[in-house]
Amino acid sequence: MAQNPAKRHLSMDSSEGWTTLVGETDIEKDEFSFLWTVKHFSVVSQLGSSFESPVFHGGSNFNHAWQMKICRKKDVQDIDYLSLHLRLVDCGKGRPCHSKTEVVKANYQFAIVDANGQPTYIRGETPGATLKVLKFKLKSGLGWGYHKFITSADLIKPELKLVVDDTLTIRCQIWICGGLKQKLGNSSDDTNSNIPVRKRMAREKVAMDIGKLLRESIGTDVTIQTKERVLKAHKAILMARSPVFATMFNVNMLEKQLNVVKIVDFDDDVVEAMLQHVYTGETMLMAERAEELLKIAEKYDMTGLKEDCEYQLADSLNLENVATILVLAHAHNAPYLKQKTVYFITLNKEKLLKSPTFREAMEAQTDTSLFMEILFSQH
Protein backbone atom coordinates (compact mmCIF):
# COMPACT_ATOMS: atom_id res chain seq x y z
CA MET A 1 0.00 0.00 0.00
CA ALA A 2 1.37 3.39 -0.94
CA GLN A 3 2.13 5.63 1.98
CA ASN A 4 0.95 9.22 2.15
CA PRO A 5 3.84 11.62 1.69
CA ALA A 6 4.92 13.43 4.80
CA LYS A 7 3.28 16.81 5.24
CA ARG A 8 5.52 19.78 4.56
CA HIS A 9 5.50 22.62 7.06
CA LEU A 10 6.29 26.18 6.14
CA SER A 11 9.55 26.98 7.86
CA MET A 12 10.31 30.51 9.00
CA ASP A 13 13.93 29.77 9.95
CA SER A 14 17.08 29.09 8.02
CA SER A 15 16.98 25.27 8.32
CA GLU A 16 16.64 24.93 4.55
CA GLY A 17 19.33 27.43 3.75
CA TRP A 18 17.11 30.49 3.75
CA THR A 19 17.18 33.36 6.22
CA THR A 20 13.92 35.23 6.66
CA LEU A 21 14.20 38.84 7.72
CA VAL A 22 11.33 40.43 9.60
CA GLY A 23 10.58 44.11 9.93
CA GLU A 24 8.45 46.10 12.33
CA THR A 25 7.10 49.63 12.10
CA ASP A 26 5.77 51.29 15.24
CA ILE A 27 5.52 54.77 16.65
CA GLU A 28 7.30 56.43 19.53
CA LYS A 29 4.78 57.34 22.19
CA ASP A 30 4.56 58.75 25.66
CA GLU A 31 1.76 59.31 28.14
CA PHE A 32 1.41 60.95 31.53
CA SER A 33 -1.05 62.74 33.83
CA PHE A 34 -0.94 66.11 35.54
CA LEU A 35 -3.12 67.20 38.49
CA TRP A 36 -3.76 70.92 38.79
CA THR A 37 -5.07 72.00 42.20
CA VAL A 38 -6.51 75.51 42.44
CA LYS A 39 -6.86 76.52 46.09
CA HIS A 40 -9.16 79.36 47.18
CA PHE A 41 -10.86 78.93 43.83
CA SER A 42 -13.63 81.43 44.57
CA VAL A 43 -11.04 84.16 45.09
CA VAL A 44 -8.66 83.14 42.30
CA SER A 45 -11.48 83.04 39.76
CA GLN A 46 -12.39 86.66 40.55
CA LEU A 47 -8.89 88.10 40.17
CA GLY A 48 -9.10 88.15 36.38
CA SER A 49 -10.90 86.77 33.38
CA SER A 50 -8.29 84.00 33.07
CA PHE A 51 -5.54 82.23 34.96
CA GLU A 52 -2.97 79.57 34.11
CA SER A 53 -1.49 76.47 35.66
CA PRO A 54 2.21 76.10 36.43
CA VAL A 55 4.21 74.95 33.42
CA PHE A 56 4.66 71.18 33.67
CA HIS A 57 6.77 68.56 31.92
CA GLY A 58 5.87 64.92 31.58
CA GLY A 59 6.83 61.68 29.95
CA SER A 60 10.20 60.03 29.80
CA ASN A 61 10.65 60.12 26.03
CA PHE A 62 9.98 63.72 25.03
CA ASN A 63 9.69 65.98 28.09
CA HIS A 64 7.70 68.71 26.34
CA ALA A 65 6.48 71.64 28.43
CA TRP A 66 2.72 72.21 28.75
CA GLN A 67 0.33 74.58 30.46
CA MET A 68 -3.43 74.66 31.11
CA LYS A 69 -5.51 77.81 31.06
CA ILE A 70 -8.95 78.61 32.49
CA CYS A 71 -11.01 81.49 31.15
CA ARG A 72 -14.34 82.82 32.34
CA LYS A 73 -16.75 83.97 29.63
CA LYS A 74 -20.43 84.39 28.92
CA ASP A 75 -22.38 83.22 25.90
CA VAL A 76 -25.09 85.09 24.02
CA GLN A 77 -27.65 83.99 26.62
CA ASP A 78 -25.51 85.52 29.36
CA ILE A 79 -24.66 82.12 30.86
CA ASP A 80 -21.31 82.08 32.66
CA TYR A 81 -18.95 79.33 31.50
CA LEU A 82 -15.45 78.20 32.34
CA SER A 83 -13.35 77.31 29.33
CA LEU A 84 -10.36 74.99 29.70
CA HIS A 85 -7.47 74.67 27.24
CA LEU A 86 -4.11 72.95 26.95
CA ARG A 87 -1.24 74.59 25.11
CA LEU A 88 2.34 73.70 24.23
CA VAL A 89 4.86 76.01 25.92
CA ASP A 90 8.08 74.55 24.53
CA CYS A 91 9.42 71.22 23.36
CA GLY A 92 11.45 70.51 26.48
CA LYS A 93 14.94 69.17 26.93
CA GLY A 94 14.34 65.86 25.22
CA ARG A 95 13.25 67.18 21.81
CA PRO A 96 13.92 70.90 21.27
CA CYS A 97 11.63 72.77 18.90
CA HIS A 98 13.53 74.45 16.09
CA SER A 99 10.85 76.96 15.19
CA LYS A 100 7.46 78.25 16.25
CA THR A 101 5.88 76.32 13.41
CA GLU A 102 7.11 72.93 14.63
CA VAL A 103 4.28 70.55 15.44
CA VAL A 104 3.90 68.19 18.40
CA LYS A 105 1.34 65.48 17.69
CA ALA A 106 -0.67 64.51 20.76
CA ASN A 107 -4.09 64.17 22.31
CA TYR A 108 -5.47 64.87 25.77
CA GLN A 109 -8.33 64.34 28.19
CA PHE A 110 -9.61 66.70 30.90
CA ALA A 111 -11.53 65.69 34.02
CA ILE A 112 -12.54 67.31 37.31
CA VAL A 113 -11.62 65.21 40.35
CA ASP A 114 -14.57 65.19 42.78
CA ALA A 115 -14.69 64.88 46.56
CA ASN A 116 -14.39 61.09 46.32
CA GLY A 117 -11.24 61.31 44.23
CA GLN A 118 -13.10 60.14 41.10
CA PRO A 119 -12.72 61.83 37.69
CA THR A 120 -15.95 63.41 36.46
CA TYR A 121 -16.93 65.89 33.74
CA ILE A 122 -14.55 63.97 31.50
CA ARG A 123 -13.87 65.66 28.17
CA GLY A 124 -11.63 64.24 25.47
CA GLU A 125 -10.70 60.86 24.09
CA THR A 126 -9.56 57.71 25.83
CA PRO A 127 -6.47 56.23 24.17
CA GLY A 128 -7.08 53.33 21.86
CA ALA A 129 -6.74 52.08 18.34
CA THR A 130 -8.78 55.01 16.97
CA LEU A 131 -7.20 57.81 19.01
CA LYS A 132 -7.27 61.04 16.99
CA VAL A 133 -3.94 62.85 16.69
CA LEU A 134 -4.03 66.63 17.20
CA LYS A 135 -1.35 69.13 16.22
CA PHE A 136 0.00 71.43 18.94
CA LYS A 137 2.07 74.44 17.82
CA LEU A 138 4.04 76.94 19.87
CA LYS A 139 2.50 79.86 18.03
CA SER A 140 -1.05 78.79 18.95
CA GLY A 141 -2.51 80.95 21.70
CA LEU A 142 -5.00 78.71 23.48
CA GLY A 143 -3.97 75.42 21.94
CA TRP A 144 -6.74 72.81 22.18
CA GLY A 145 -9.60 72.64 24.64
CA TYR A 146 -13.24 73.43 25.37
CA HIS A 147 -14.76 76.90 25.25
CA LYS A 148 -17.72 75.66 27.29
CA PHE A 149 -16.09 73.11 29.57
CA ILE A 150 -18.57 73.60 32.43
CA THR A 151 -21.02 76.25 33.58
CA SER A 152 -20.09 78.20 36.67
CA ALA A 153 -23.45 77.20 38.16
CA ASP A 154 -22.76 73.48 37.75
CA LEU A 155 -19.26 73.81 39.09
CA ILE A 156 -20.41 75.04 42.49
CA LYS A 157 -23.47 72.79 42.91
CA PRO A 158 -23.08 71.19 46.37
CA GLU A 159 -24.50 67.83 45.26
CA LEU A 160 -21.84 67.43 42.55
CA LYS A 161 -18.97 67.98 45.02
CA LEU A 162 -16.64 69.36 42.36
CA VAL A 163 -15.20 72.21 44.43
CA VAL A 164 -14.21 70.87 47.85
CA ASP A 165 -13.13 73.25 50.62
CA ASP A 166 -12.92 75.95 47.95
CA THR A 167 -10.41 73.81 46.04
CA LEU A 168 -10.78 72.72 42.42
CA THR A 169 -8.70 69.79 41.11
CA ILE A 170 -8.37 69.14 37.39
CA ARG A 171 -6.69 66.10 35.84
CA CYS A 172 -5.09 66.35 32.44
CA GLN A 173 -3.93 63.20 30.65
CA ILE A 174 -1.68 63.62 27.61
CA TRP A 175 -0.71 61.09 24.94
CA ILE A 176 2.19 62.14 22.71
CA CYS A 177 3.02 60.59 19.34
CA GLY A 178 6.60 60.83 18.07
CA GLY A 179 8.23 59.62 14.90
CA LEU A 180 8.13 56.17 13.37
CA LYS A 181 10.33 53.42 14.81
CA GLN A 182 11.79 50.79 12.51
CA LYS A 183 13.13 47.42 13.62
CA LEU A 184 14.76 44.71 11.54
CA GLY A 185 15.86 41.21 12.53
CA ASN A 186 15.71 37.50 11.81
CA SER A 187 12.46 35.60 12.26
CA SER A 188 14.21 33.35 14.77
CA ASP A 189 15.25 36.28 16.95
CA ASP A 190 13.48 36.38 20.29
CA THR A 191 12.75 40.09 19.95
CA ASN A 192 10.64 42.13 22.31
CA SER A 193 8.10 42.61 19.52
CA ASN A 194 7.12 38.94 19.89
CA ILE A 195 6.50 39.16 23.62
CA PRO A 196 3.01 40.81 23.47
CA VAL A 197 1.89 38.25 20.88
CA ARG A 198 3.12 35.36 23.02
CA LYS A 199 1.44 36.79 26.12
CA ARG A 200 -1.86 37.21 24.27
CA MET A 201 -1.66 33.67 22.92
CA ALA A 202 -0.86 32.36 26.41
CA ARG A 203 -3.91 34.14 27.87
CA GLU A 204 -6.12 32.75 25.13
CA LYS A 205 -4.79 29.25 25.79
CA VAL A 206 -5.52 29.58 29.52
CA ALA A 207 -9.08 30.80 28.79
CA MET A 208 -9.59 27.89 26.38
CA ASP A 209 -8.34 25.33 28.91
CA ILE A 210 -10.42 26.75 31.78
CA GLY A 211 -13.43 26.97 29.49
CA LYS A 212 -13.04 23.29 28.70
CA LEU A 213 -13.71 22.49 32.37
CA LEU A 214 -17.13 24.10 31.99
CA ARG A 215 -17.95 22.81 28.51
CA GLU A 216 -17.09 19.19 29.31
CA SER A 217 -18.10 19.25 33.02
CA ILE A 218 -14.65 18.08 34.13
CA GLY A 219 -14.28 17.77 37.91
CA THR A 220 -17.40 19.79 38.71
CA ASP A 221 -18.60 20.00 42.31
CA VAL A 222 -21.62 22.32 42.23
CA THR A 223 -24.88 22.43 40.26
CA ILE A 224 -26.47 25.59 38.85
CA GLN A 225 -30.21 25.14 38.42
CA THR A 226 -31.90 27.57 36.03
CA LYS A 227 -35.54 27.64 34.97
CA GLU A 228 -35.16 24.64 32.67
CA ARG A 229 -31.51 23.55 32.71
CA VAL A 230 -28.98 21.98 35.02
CA LEU A 231 -25.45 23.31 34.59
CA LYS A 232 -22.34 21.91 36.26
CA ALA A 233 -19.64 24.24 37.61
CA HIS A 234 -16.77 24.53 40.07
CA LYS A 235 -16.99 26.20 43.47
CA ALA A 236 -13.39 27.43 43.42
CA ILE A 237 -13.79 29.24 40.11
CA LEU A 238 -17.13 30.78 41.09
CA MET A 239 -15.67 31.93 44.42
CA ALA A 240 -12.63 33.46 42.73
CA ARG A 241 -14.75 35.42 40.27
CA SER A 242 -17.65 36.51 42.49
CA PRO A 243 -17.67 37.72 46.13
CA VAL A 244 -21.34 36.74 46.30
CA PHE A 245 -20.60 33.11 45.40
CA ALA A 246 -17.65 33.19 47.79
CA THR A 247 -19.98 34.13 50.62
CA MET A 248 -22.44 31.38 49.67
CA PHE A 249 -19.81 28.66 49.87
CA ASN A 250 -17.86 30.02 52.85
CA VAL A 251 -20.72 30.36 55.32
CA ASN A 252 -23.24 27.73 56.35
CA MET A 253 -25.82 28.59 53.72
CA LEU A 254 -28.14 26.17 51.92
CA GLU A 255 -26.00 26.37 48.75
CA LYS A 256 -22.98 25.11 50.68
CA GLN A 257 -24.91 22.24 52.26
CA LEU A 258 -26.58 21.03 49.05
CA ASN A 259 -23.93 22.12 46.51
CA VAL A 260 -26.79 23.57 44.46
CA VAL A 261 -27.36 27.19 43.41
CA LYS A 262 -30.76 28.10 42.01
CA ILE A 263 -30.87 31.02 39.55
CA VAL A 264 -34.41 31.26 38.25
CA ASP A 265 -34.79 35.04 37.96
CA PHE A 266 -32.84 35.15 34.67
CA ASP A 267 -33.30 33.33 31.37
CA ASP A 268 -31.35 30.10 30.95
CA ASP A 269 -29.24 31.60 28.13
CA VAL A 270 -28.25 34.56 30.31
CA VAL A 271 -27.12 32.31 33.17
CA GLU A 272 -25.11 30.15 30.79
CA ALA A 273 -23.55 33.24 29.19
CA MET A 274 -22.63 34.52 32.65
CA LEU A 275 -20.86 31.23 33.39
CA GLN A 276 -19.02 31.40 30.06
CA HIS A 277 -17.69 34.82 31.02
CA VAL A 278 -16.72 33.59 34.48
CA TYR A 279 -14.56 30.85 32.97
CA THR A 280 -13.18 32.52 29.81
CA GLY A 281 -13.64 36.27 30.19
CA GLU A 282 -16.02 36.52 27.24
CA THR A 283 -19.36 35.32 25.92
CA MET A 284 -20.89 35.15 22.45
CA LEU A 285 -24.20 36.57 23.79
CA MET A 286 -22.74 39.92 24.86
CA ALA A 287 -24.06 41.88 21.86
CA GLU A 288 -27.66 40.63 22.11
CA ARG A 289 -28.12 40.16 25.89
CA ALA A 290 -25.95 42.90 27.39
CA GLU A 291 -28.79 44.41 29.44
CA GLU A 292 -29.64 41.16 31.21
CA LEU A 293 -25.96 40.32 31.63
CA LEU A 294 -25.42 43.69 33.31
CA LYS A 295 -28.20 42.88 35.77
CA ILE A 296 -26.86 39.43 36.64
CA ALA A 297 -23.32 40.85 36.92
CA GLU A 298 -24.61 43.42 39.41
CA LYS A 299 -26.43 40.73 41.43
CA TYR A 300 -23.35 38.53 41.76
CA ASP A 301 -20.80 41.38 41.91
CA MET A 302 -18.86 40.35 38.79
CA THR A 303 -16.91 43.48 37.94
CA GLY A 304 -15.31 42.17 34.74
CA LEU A 305 -18.61 41.11 33.21
CA LYS A 306 -20.27 44.32 34.32
CA GLU A 307 -17.59 46.50 32.73
CA ASP A 308 -17.86 44.58 29.45
CA CYS A 309 -21.62 45.11 29.48
CA GLU A 310 -21.20 48.84 30.12
CA TYR A 311 -18.84 49.23 27.17
CA GLN A 312 -21.13 47.17 24.91
CA LEU A 313 -24.22 49.20 25.82
CA ALA A 314 -22.37 52.53 25.56
CA ASP A 315 -21.33 51.63 22.02
CA SER A 316 -24.93 50.81 21.10
CA LEU A 317 -26.54 54.08 22.26
CA ASN A 318 -29.06 55.64 19.90
CA LEU A 319 -32.12 57.91 20.05
CA GLU A 320 -34.47 54.95 20.53
CA ASN A 321 -32.75 53.15 23.41
CA VAL A 322 -31.00 55.93 25.34
CA ALA A 323 -33.84 56.42 27.85
CA THR A 324 -34.00 52.71 28.68
CA ILE A 325 -30.24 52.47 29.06
CA LEU A 326 -30.11 55.56 31.30
CA VAL A 327 -32.63 53.98 33.68
CA LEU A 328 -30.71 50.69 33.56
CA ALA A 329 -27.38 52.38 34.34
CA HIS A 330 -28.88 54.40 37.18
CA ALA A 331 -30.69 51.42 38.74
CA HIS A 332 -27.72 49.06 38.57
CA ASN A 333 -24.89 51.38 39.62
CA ALA A 334 -23.06 51.51 36.28
CA PRO A 335 -21.14 54.82 36.44
CA TYR A 336 -19.31 54.60 33.11
CA LEU A 337 -22.49 53.72 31.22
CA LYS A 338 -24.47 56.42 32.98
CA GLN A 339 -21.84 59.04 32.17
CA LYS A 340 -21.82 58.07 28.49
CA THR A 341 -25.62 58.04 28.38
CA VAL A 342 -25.95 61.46 30.01
CA TYR A 343 -23.40 62.87 27.57
CA PHE A 344 -25.35 61.38 24.62
CA ILE A 345 -28.56 62.98 25.89
CA THR A 346 -26.97 66.40 26.35
CA LEU A 347 -25.70 66.27 22.75
CA ASN A 348 -29.13 65.31 21.37
CA LYS A 349 -31.54 67.25 23.59
CA GLU A 350 -33.57 68.85 20.81
CA LYS A 351 -34.07 65.60 18.88
CA LEU A 352 -34.95 63.64 22.03
CA LEU A 353 -37.53 66.18 23.20
CA LYS A 354 -39.29 65.70 19.86
CA SER A 355 -39.09 61.90 20.03
CA PRO A 356 -42.34 60.15 21.10
CA THR A 357 -40.33 57.07 22.12
CA PHE A 358 -38.11 59.08 24.46
CA ARG A 359 -41.00 61.04 25.96
CA GLU A 360 -43.00 57.85 26.58
CA ALA A 361 -40.02 56.23 28.28
CA MET A 362 -39.51 59.34 30.40
CA GLU A 363 -43.19 59.57 31.40
CA ALA A 364 -43.24 55.85 32.29
CA GLN A 365 -40.81 56.50 35.13
CA THR A 366 -42.28 57.22 38.53
CA ASP A 367 -39.33 59.52 39.23
CA THR A 368 -38.69 61.76 36.22
CA SER A 369 -36.11 63.92 38.01
CA LEU A 370 -33.28 61.87 36.50
CA PHE A 371 -34.35 62.91 32.99
CA MET A 372 -35.46 66.43 33.78
CA GLU A 373 -32.18 67.43 35.43
CA ILE A 374 -30.25 66.35 32.34
CA LEU A 375 -32.61 67.75 29.71
CA PHE A 376 -33.00 71.18 31.25
CA SER A 377 -29.47 71.71 32.48
CA GLN A 378 -27.53 74.46 30.72
CA HIS A 379 -24.50 72.42 29.55
Give the helix/strand class: alpha+beta
Mind telling me which CATH architecture of the largest domain this is? Sandwich
Number of strands: 14
> C-alpha Rg, in Å?
27 Å
Shape field: globular
Task: Kindly provide the name of the CATH class of the largest domain.
Answer: Mainly Beta
Distance between the termini: 82 Å
Number of domains: 3
InterPro entries: BTB/POZ_dom (IPR000210), MATH/TRAF_dom (IPR002083), SKP1/BTB/POZ_sf (IPR011333), TRAF-like (IPR008974)
Pfam families: BTB (PF00651), MATH_2 (PF22486)
Domain MATH: 31-174
Domain BTB: 220-287
Fold blueprint:
Layout: E1 21-38, H1 41-44, E2 50-52, E3 56-57, E4 65-74, E5 80-90, E6 103-113, E7 119-124, E8 134-137, E9 144-151, H2 152-155, E10 163-164, E11 167-186, H3 195-215, E12 222-225, E13 230-233, H4 235-241, H5 243-250, H6 254-258, E14 260-262, H7 268-280, H8 286-299, H9 303-315, H10 322-331, H11 335-347, H12 349-353, H13 356-363, H14 369-375
Parallel strand pairs: 12-14
Antiparallel strand pairs: 1-11, 2-4, 3-4, 4-5, 5-9, 6-7, 6-8, 6-11, 10-11, 12-13
Helix pairs in contact: 3-7, 4-5, 7-8, 8-9, 9-11, 10-11
Protein name: Protein roadkill
Domain BTB: 220-287
InterPro entries: BTB/POZ_dom, MATH/TRAF_dom, SKP1/BTB/POZ_sf, TRAF-like
